[in-house]
Amino acid sequence: MSRALLLTVGTGDMSRLEESLFAPLRKSIEQGEWERVVLLPSLVTEQYAAELKVRCGGDLVHVQPLPAAGLEDDADACFAHFDQAIGALRDDGFPTADIVADFTRGTKAMSAALVLAAVRHDLSTLRYIIGPRDNRGMVRSGMEQIFEISPAIATARKRLDAAFQFTRHGNFAGALALLDNDSKINGWPSALANAVPALRSVLRFYAAWDRLDYRTAAAVAYPVIASLPEWHVLWPTPAMAMWTARLAAPAALEDFPAMAARLRLLACDLHANGERRIRDRHFEDAVLRGYRVLELVGQIRLFGHGLDSGHLPPDQPAVQKLSAKLAKAGSVELGMRPDGSLTAAREQVARLLKVLGDPLASDLLKFDEQRTLLKVSARNKSVLIHGFQAVGQDDDAPLRELYRALEALLIMDGGDVTRNDLLIARQMAFSISPVSVL
Question: What distance in Å separates the CA atoms of residue 346 and residue 380, rounded to the nearest whole number?
Fold first, then answer.
């Protein structure tokens, strides 16, 4: 593998440059097999770096001084320069695992900046010179030892912190991408590396739940971990596990009470999912979810009357009465399936519920009329359905108002049970206030 070494270059003891500067730098260069050595001096020490390049010979050594005088005491400027130097090595094909940074020499600002740049690029090895020191605090000449350390704890924590924030804000796929590769955690301290499999399972659980893949979510096992206590607030609760299991459980289509119960769960989950889409400003997706929630309420109520909107018996009295009304008004007729059963769209379901005397029928029929800012029926013109442009607008206020109205409708249907179900469905929205979701 190609290997590269970066070294900061200081002044050393100007009265003893050979012992205090050149010899220690050469010792670091000689300890390892390098395809490239990059010296990082200030403008003051550039001449020493040039001298060392001559002594080492060949094209092995590259000198990249700080771009202006006085920057050796500016940690930000040093970081920018060293960050660019490491980036150039990576662009030239050097893997981060094969780039070593020696921060022994130079000012404290230079040393700190090189360490920070190394951590930023996830370099696996840092080195510096240790040994017995003289009365000036300098390592005695000829007694230098190369000491290597791994910034793995810092880089691991940095990656875990990023994964935590991604998870908290609902980017489960992004969090999983940070951790779902064994090469990315190679060299991590065991206490952190051993927690990664459990974190991956949790992220797969949330990712599946968020994309409405309840069966996959319910099948994921995620052991509780004692380490990483900050993650405990994001860990799935027993209620979450039970919720996805209930959603994953099938219900026979001919079992109307069971279908109504399952669709009530689904409506609550889609409502909470839509709220997260609003949070993430995925307005078009939120509109579609809102439409489906409204449609589900009608289907739920119809199942309660022993009817399926997708398989309506043509000889059922209420269905016959609705068909007659539609024909008289010149409205769109009920659809017909190959087996002779009929189908009803969302508004037709509401009208059928009115014929059946359902108490929610009027609310369903008037729902769009009550929405002064955004009509849920706009979904039909969405670019994701039949339209040619977005209907979700560029403001979340209309959607929040719509979702509040949908929540009220859900509670009118399901009462306190639905209130409790919404609380569970919303538990994945870690970055939304638990007191007022919208």
Answer: 12
Contact between residue 326 and residue 314 where contact means Cβ atoms under 8 Å apart:
no
Six token digits for residue 144: 């230098």
Q: Which residues of 16-47 are buried (b: 16+ CB within 10 A; e: fewer)?
A: eeebbbbebbeebbeebebebbbbbbbebbbe
Angular region, 415: left φ>0, alpha ψ -120 to 50, beta rest: left
Task: Compute the distance between CA of residue 313 and CA of residue 34 in angstroms, rounded to an integer.
Answer: 80
DSSP state of 64: -
Q: How many other β-carbons are positioned within 10 Å of the β-carbon of residue 235?
A: 15
Backbone torsion region of residue 12, taken as left when φ is above 0, otherwise alpha when ψ lies between -120 and 50, otherwise beta: left
Could you tell me the two tokens for 79?
């970081």
Cross-strand pairs, 147: 128
Bridge partners (DSSP) listed for residue 4: 36, 99
Report the C-alpha gap between 144 and 120 in whole angstroms: 28
For 128, phi and psi rounded to 5 degrees?
-155, 165
Q: 3-state class of 95 per DSSP? A: coil
Tens of pLDDT, residue by residue over 145-182, are 777 888 888 888 989 999 999 999 999 999 999 998 77
What is the pLDDT averaged over residues 406-423?
A: 96
Range 69-79 average pLDDT: 96
pLDDT at 303 over 70: yes
Tokens of 70: 């006085």
The answer to whether the CB of 109 falls within 8 A of the CB of 72 is: yes
Secondary-structure percent of the chain, ordered helix, strand, coil, rounded to 5: 55, 10, 35
* pLDDT tens digit sequence for 22-45: 888 888 888 888 999 999 999 999
For the entire predicted model, the pTM comes to 0.82
Q: Residue 293: name the closest of 270, 261, 276, 262 by CA.
A: 270
Q: How many Cβ atoms sit within 10 Å of the Cβ of residue 338?
A: 5
What residues have CB less than 8 Å from 176, skipping those under 6 apart? 200, 203, 204, 207
Q: Which residues fall within 8 angstroms of residue 141, CB to CB, at 6 or more apart?
A: 16, 19, 20, 23
Q: At what angle do helices 172-179 and 196-210 cross, to 10 degrees?
A: 150
Contact 349, 343 (CB under 8 A): no
